[in-house]
Amino acid sequence: MGDDSEWLKLPVDQKCEHKLWKARLSGYEEALKIFQKIKDEKSPEWSKFLGLIKKFVTDSNAVVQLKGLEAALVYVENAHVAGKTTGEVVSGVVSKVFNQPKAKAKELGIEICLMYIEIEKGEAVQEELLKGLDNKNPKIVVACIETLRKALSEFGSKIILLKPIIKVLPKLFESREKAVRDEAKLIAVEIYRWIRDALRPPLQNINSVQLKELEEEWVKLPTGAPKPSRFLRSQQELEAKLEQQQSAGGDAEGGGDDGDEVPQIDAYELLEAVEILSKLPKDFYDKIEAKKWQERKEALEAVEVLVKNPKLEAGDYADLVKALKKVVGKDTNVMLVALAAKCLTGLAVGLRKKFGQYAGHVVPTILEKFKEKKPQVVQALQEAIDAIFLTTTLQNISEDILAVMDNKNPTIKQQTSLFIARSFRHCTASTLPKSLLKPFCAALLKHINDSAPEVRDAAFEALGTALKVVGEKAVNPFLADVDKLKLDKIKECSEKVELVHGKKAGLAADKKDFKPVPGRTAASGAAGDKDVKDISAPKPGPLKKAPAAKAGGPPKKGKPAAPGGPGSTGTKSKKGLETKEIVEPELSIEVCEEKASAVLPPTCIQLLDSGNWKERLASMEEFQKSVELMDRTEMPCQALVRMLAKKPGWKETNFQVMQLKLHIVALIAQKGNFSKTSAQVVLDGLVDKIGDVKCGNNAKEAMTAIAEACMLPWTAEQVMSMAFSQKNPKNQSETLNWLSNAIKEFGFSGLNVKAFISNVKTALAATNPAVRTSAITLLGVMYLYVGPSLRMFFEDEKPALLSQIDAEFEKMQGQSPPAPTRGISKHSVSGTDEGEDGDEPDDGGNDVVDLLPRTEISDKITSELVSKIGDKNWKIRKEGLDEVAGIINEAKFIQPNIGELPTALKGRLNDSNKILVQQTLNILQQLAVAMGPNIKQHVKNLGIPIITVLGDSKNNVRAAALATVNAWAEQTGMKEWLEGEDLSEELKKENPFLRQELLGWLAEKLPTLRSTPTDLILCVPHLYSCLEDRNGDVRKKAQDALPFFMMHLGYEKMAKATGKLKPTSKDQVLAMLEKAKANMPAKPAAPAKAASKSIAGSAPAKFQPTSAPAEDSVCSTVDLKSDPKKAKAQGVSSKAKSAQAKKVPSKTSLKEDEDKSGPIFIVVPNGKEQRMKDEKALKVLKWNFTTPRDEYIEQLKTQMSSCVAKWLQDEMFHSDFQHHNKALAVMVDHLESEKEGVIGCLDLILKWLTLRFFDTNTSVLMKALEYLKLLFTLLTEEEYHLTENEASSFIPYLILKVGEPKDVIRKDVRAILNRMCLVYPSSKMFPFIMEGTKSKNSKQRAECLEELGCLVESYGMNVCQPTPGKALKEIAIHIGDRDNAVRNAALNTIVTVYNVYGDQVFKLIGNLSEKDMSMLEERIKRSAKRPSAAPMKQVEEKPQRTQSISANANMLRKGPAEDMSSKLNQARSMSGHPEAAQMVRREFQLDLDEIENDNGTVRCEMPELVQHKLDDIFEPVLIPEPKVRAVSPHFDDMHSNTASTINFIISQVASGDINTSIQALTQIDEVLRQEDKAEAMSGHIDQFLIATFMQLRLSYNTHMADEKLEKDEIIKLYSCIIGNMISLFQIESLAREASTGVLKDLMHGLITLMLDSRIEDLEEGQQVIRSVNLLVVKVLEKSDQTNILSALLVLLQDSLLATASSPKFSELVMKCLWRMVRLLPDTINSINLDRILLDIHIFMKVFPKEKLKQCKSEFPIRTLKTLLHTLCKLKGPKILDHLTMIDNKNESELEAHLCRMMKHSMDQTGSKSDKETEKGASRIDEKSSKAKVNDFLAEIFKKIGSKENTKEGLAELYEYKKKYSDADIEPFLKNSSQFFQSYVERGLRVIEMEREGKGRIPTSAGISPQMEVTCVPTPTSTVSSIGNTNGEEVGPSVYLERLKILRQRCGLDNTKQDDRPPLTSLLSKPAVPTVASSTDMLHSKLSQLRESREQHQHSDLDSHQTHSSGAVTTSSSTANIDDLKKRLERIKSSRK
User: Fold this and answer.
1) In this structure, what are the phi and psi dihedrals at residue 894, rounded to the nearest 5 degrees?
2) 3-class DSSP assignment, residue 1569
3) At CB < 8 A and 24+ separation, what contacts does 498-505 make?
4) Using an 8 Å Cβ cutoff, are 686 and 661 in contact?
5) What is the dihedral of CA 332, 334, 339, 342, to 10 degrees?
6) What count of Cα atoms within 13 Å lies in the side-chain half-sphere of residue 1805?
7) Are 1999 and 1648 in contact (CB under 8 A)?
């Protein structure tokens, strides 16, 4: 039982792994219970079991395994992390569960597999199961097949990949095991259920009996499409939906949906490809050319056999196709023609899409061959061309087909039409766009009138098919002129057509055609389809295009038409010219009079032609009233306008009547259903009056109204032709002006550029300058929409005219077309069409290109020219190419048919002569531009060979090839390139140049695509091999391209594709994929559909910047998308809406104004802090990307939603840039008024602006930069400081823009960077800008380098991060840059540094190449500036940069703004010293970077200081009274808030201005001296110390180096600092507040100051150094003992590590440590030993014993040992309990050391106590044994070593030596340091002198306990000074002793003079003045600033060693004194 109880106590996870089966069983049961209880799928509990699940299923005990399987199933079902276990668990199930005899186990195993599939891990499961099929155990094989079958049955063929299963099926049918064969049969039946006959070909070779059995089973299967019964997690909503439908009995609908669910598997996919090219007969190409037809037949039969293979491997079939084509086209034997056609059919069927590239060559030949009458030939040709059609698209071969349509031969016409009909059947509405349908319909309409009946019938069939495919709505416009009989015939044909895509397409078409009917009928009040068309359509204006209101689905689309009144019927945008509207029949004048009299008063009609103008005027007024009151449906527009045109009509002479008449025309056009027929009646008259001074405006108004009623394109064309058919120049120029304006109002959609251009050309040639000017203005407006291609039409104009046109275009550059404001409101949003939006942008894009007149050049490509291009002589080849270039140049725009040219040019792409290759590339570039988008059809045969040229070894050839490929891609788009295997084949070639160029190209193009063909996946395996290519560039390019491939293919597919790699490669690639996943950009968004829908009759999507200006648009487009309800509320389909765009219901505009009245930024308390926390906790994405992906934009949108006004957010995230401009304008307006809000949302605003940096639109960018300038000015005024988060998510992106090509943008960005330094520390800006210098953009590199120069110039070297050395080395790299501007910028920056910093620059830069160095030296010579000149200049030049330097970067404003500014103003008003006050911009919280930067000092007069006698240190020194005070010294007067005032003053301590600093120190000293006030400093100690050592660093680095500064000023500063510190460190409670880090820096600063040779050379320098000495002792005694001890250990470690640090420095640090060791007995209880031991442990880790022993000096190792020894002695064995903070202490050297020591001390000390030793020490028995003597001496030496008993110990030692003169004390001294030995010897000599009275030395000065201190940390030797205070003479022995030490240090012969002579000691003055004055002190802390430099340059920094603390004399003759003095002086002077 003992055993049992043990495992019962274990936690669950351990039980599961227990070796006892009972334990495991219990574990699994408990796990199962736990799993069932956990509700949250993401609970961390799940992760605990992650590694155990495999064990659950593979348990060796069958009973336990069952329970494990149950638990595993629950786990997989519920755990979020379960997917990670898929592979191992399923393989465990396959190998260990499927072989179990228990059926239950197998069931559970299968369930687990299916559950993994449900959680989206289908592929991994399938992979494992397929592996299981190879298992030797048939049980396992059967279970695997069964699992696959169940999976397929439940999840369907979309989830379970059939191809791999079908591949192994034949093998399973051959198995010896019956069970396996039976199971194979079941799965074959299941597969057949899903893919039907596609399964037959792969199984055709299995055993016939089995096949027969299968056939029988297959027949029994139900015919309905199968549906999955189980869904993936992600599809489970779908499942729920299905159930609802079934329960509602609405299965029919569901069935329709689900038909799409089942993917149609193509048998072709399941076949293996066969390679046939190599199997062609060797002599094939000869035989096919043979004269005997039999030989040709043999050759063809050989091919026929090969192409019977159902799937062929891709390859270069060009030659074979060419040979077959030749037979089809030229062979006289019709049998062979048929045979060749069959071969082509076989190739097309076997290659599918891969044959597409050859289609263009073969189609024309086959079509022309249809002239053959023989049925078998015709049939073969039909089969061939149908097969070929399937390999390409109708678009690609449309030109060829249309070319044949005009052939005279009726059979060719008939067969072509039939082919078109068959082709249409394969199309759908989307693949047969209007642009393609139009030319086909035009050609077929000619055929329906052909004389040959078979041609007519074929054409009817083709048109009928088109009608069936795309629906009447799309075809009707083209059939407008067809008479009824023929129309009926077409409809009849359409009904008979069976579409390839099943009934569905037809159904959709029917829906489209008939759904709108109810809507229309309702609207017009007529009944039935026909009525609508014939009668009512002419009346209601917009309804004439009623069929365009295509309702893609249920009738809801039609409904709004009814309630919205006739005005709101939807109209398709962008169908101006193409839509042949139903034109109103022309009415006779009688009918018109009749209709008019029905609606007009009789008097009105009678007076119309009165002879009296007044009567005519009255008649017109009545006419106008009637029209205004008339209802739209009742208004007979044509009758009314004919009445107006009745005599006198447009010849009216009275201008008032005429004006009114024109106004009425406008009214009728606006209010009635105005048709083109009506328009025809009036337009002539309008054009005639447009130039009239009085009536011109009315005429224009009427024209605009007509344009709105009849669409601008039609109106414009009419008006233009009328204007130019008459001679009046005024009319012509005014017409052009009207048109310019109309285009702006209506947009450019549908306008016929060609027609305008001919008129514009006429106008340009006019003699009247006004006409020419108007024409040029019109061109300018057209340029806005058409773009640069417009100029092509005018290249042959006269240069003078052309320059005017160019100037006009120049004006328009960068502007964007205005939003169309007219042609909108009539066609409300609700009825717009959605179906055709997809292809709309294309129409827009190609608009202009389609209009260019293209030349046919195929006749110029003669066979002679082709043979020239292929000639052996390169010169002739060149001639041929020149000719081609000439032909293309001359033609400018060409048709796509270019004969044999492609093959000829293709050959030249691999010409051995590289010049010809380049020439060919140039021709291909020209060709792309000349042919435009039609070049698409040549991508496969010419485009891909260009890509091959990217592999050329010559750089210039590659560059030319890349330019060509880009020129082509611009015309064709990327789809054609990515389709098929061609691109992957190129990538497969192991040519490093080709790979890197191609990958670079793809990386550039892929991110811009919205979608890519699936063939892109074919490139992935080659992409992976590129990732491991030997060539580094290829690898880099492949890595760059990786995210973009992933963006289109998704991570899953990419990861799956790694399956075929070697394991090592796979891991590497997967790691790269993970990385790429993080950087994956989002796909570019689709052009906003909402936008294009909302503008009904305006521009194509491309030209639609906005739905309308905000006031006019009914609701902004974004609203439409985001909130349909709101859109309705704003009255989108409001009934009140009239026909005019202007009359938007007033309600809506009011509503919008209300919306916009509130604040735009809402202040959310702590919103920003919360966002930062979220980002830190990784709850949201970190703002870091190369291009912004959708998820970043969405995230920003979400974050903004809470704090930005809704309407502004809509503008900010609109898809159109004009809205961004609007948003920016609003933000600028609100900047001042909403400061709080702006600052609260600043992080979001900056992020949004970074998104704008990625926009391509310059106007947005300029606006954004403008806003930023204002924003940063505001932030500076508000004294705000950017947080790290804001900075890091904004600055890098701003720096990107510094490399913009436009000067004005770069200037703005630089200005912003400049301002940023006032709200963000320049030293933190520095790394960002430094990062910018690594850019590929040379402009950016240059600008960033210049900016770095400016920073250094303004803020000194301290901005250089991480250290000046590193930074300068980085900058210096750019001296060798290939770009001249970058080189100059780098040189200038370094020269700037040189000017501030002198020759040290060269040391910091390190090694440069000779060339770079010489350039630098040359530049420095030229600049010839002296370093010291810098500081003053900086102040004048850059006042704005120095303003807020001391402000703190990380502190957000704590209090409200007013409170703070008032404090500041108070502070400023009190100060009579404006410069000083200005330096401190705000409440201060210290930031080192900022303080270091503060050396842009302002020099001011120093106040007179009280002169002290510094040699008299007994008296406290008085603080100098400054004349000017920056701030009042009395804190209370200043402000009640003491803390902020202290902050303020402390901030001034670190000021770069000495005066400011001294005043601040004075005030702080005042506080510290008053006990009651000193407490106020509590909490500010660290801050004060930091400011202090910053000031020390500044003095050390800057002030001391500044030759202009008076040195006594610096001494005053030092004195103040040191005085202050001494005051501070006398107050123990405050001193203890100093933290470790600060103490470390402080000690560093003080010691560095002691070692500063420049100070010693000053008059009062000695005094300063003494004061520092004293201060150090205070710091050591009074600070928190743990902190100071820790600080010293770290400092020692750093100083030993820093190679540049002087040995003296380390020595002084160690002396401080010894001092601390002496204090230990008193302080041991207050010390946190654990922390100290951790520090020692770290020290020993960095410096193991071996490394320490290698040090030059033995001090470090002794120091460490002494410290540890003391600690051991004081704590005893307990010390080992204090190692808690050390991880894995067993490995720590420290523990081992302590253990050794403990052992040793146990052995040594025994139990003797110290006190006994002391008592017995002096009375030692003469006969004491040797051992006792040793003990005795050991005790004496211990006393000498301790602080308190030194004198006593020395005295005892003296007594002992006197008593036992032969006693040997050497062994005791031998182990001690040189310093200790000489100390002991000197001590003994002093005692001797005292006792024997040979000369007196005042011991009080030397060995008083206080003063002994000084020996520890001072750099000065503390030997008593020679002229002592009491004037006593000192014996020569003192000099001798000093000299001896000096010589010993200088290497005896005095040659090695590294060290300096000792300085006068402190002994001459009493040690502790009661209050140390602050002037004693001020030079202490600059060391920090200097630290970084020290490491580089001051390796020769003089360091001093402490020599001795006792005064020493030796008996020697006084005669030597003079000599010694002289020698000492010599040494001193030589050192100086």
Assistant:
1) -125, 160
2) helix
3) 498/425, 499/425, 499/468, 499/469, 500/425, 500/426, 501/426, 501/428, 504/259, 505/428, 505/429, 505/468, 505/469
4) no
5) 110
6) 18
7) no
Strand partners, 855: 894
Residue 1419, token pair as written in the block: 């530049």
pLDDT given for residue 919 in this prediction = 92
DSSP-assigned letter for residue 1576:
G
Q: Please tell me the least confidently modeled range out of 1051-1060, 1144-1153, 1158-1167, 1921-1930.
A: 1144-1153
Number of neighbours of residue 513 by Cβ within 10 angstroms: 20
1991: tokens are 């490491």
Token readout for 1399 is 């020759």
Q: In angstroms, how far is CA 1113 from the centroid of its own chain?
A: 34
Exposure of 1424 by Cβ count < 10 A (0-12 exposed, 13-18 middle, 19+ buried)? exposed
Half-sphere exposure of 501 (CA within 13 A, CB side): 21
State whether residue 2012 is helix, strand or coil: coil
DSSP 1803-1816: HHHTT--HHHHHHH
* 1020 token code pair: 């992935």
Average model confidence (pLDDT) across the chain: 75
Contact 135, 180 (CB under 8 A): no
Coil, strand, or helix at residue 1161?
strand
Q: Is 1517:1976 a contact under the CB 8 Å cutoff?
A: yes
Three-state helix/strand/coil letters over 802-820: HHHHHHHHHHHCCCCCCCC
On whether the CB atoms of residues 1135 and 563 are closer than 8 A, the answer is: yes
Provide the token pair at 532. Answer: 């609508």
CA–CA gap between residue 1161 and residue 1239 (Å, rounded): 9
Full DSSP string of 1814-1860: HHHHS---TT--HHHHHHHHHHHHHHHHSSTTHHHHHHHHHHHHHH-
d(CA 1669, CA 1708): 11
Amino acid at 741: N
Contact in structure between 1693 and 1742 (CB atoms under 8 Å): yes
pLDDT of residue 1115: 36
* pLDDT at residue 515 in the model: 37
Question: Of 1650-1659, 1910-1919, 1986-1995, which has the strongest mean pLDDT?
Answer: 1650-1659
User: At residue 1500, does pLDDT exceed 60?
Assistant: no
pTM over 0.70: no
Q: Which long-range contacts (CB under 8 A, 24 or more apart) does 314-319 make?
A: 314/273, 314/351, 314/354, 314/980, 314/981, 314/985, 315/275, 315/277, 316/277, 317/277, 317/347, 317/351, 317/355, 317/358, 318/358, 318/903, 318/941, 319/285
Helices (H), 932-1031: 944-949, 955-972, 975-978, 982-988, 992-1005, 1020-1027
Q: Determine contact, residues 1591/1946, Cβ cutoff 8 Å.
A: no
Phi, psi of 315 (to 5 degrees): 180, -170
Confidence check: pLDDT of 827 > 60 = no
Question: Do you know the residue count of the chain?
Answer: 2032
SS3 state of residue 312:
strand
CB 946 within 8 A of CB 964: yes
Report d(CA 808, CA 791) in Å as an integer: 11
Cβ atoms of 1969 and 1514 within 8 Å: the answer is yes
**Is the confidence at residue 1702, as pLDDT, over 60?**
yes
Q: Considering just the CA atoms, what is the radius of gyration of the chain in Å?
A: 48
Residues near 1757 by Cβ (< 8 Å), separated by ≥ 6?
A: 1745, 1748, 1749, 1751
Report phi then psi at 636, rounded to 5. Answer: -85, 85
Q: Cβ neighbours of residue 610 under 8 Å, at least 6 residues apart? A: 616, 619
Structure tokens at 1929: 């003479």
Query: How far apart are the C-alpha atoms of 566 and 827, rounded to whole Å?
Result: 10
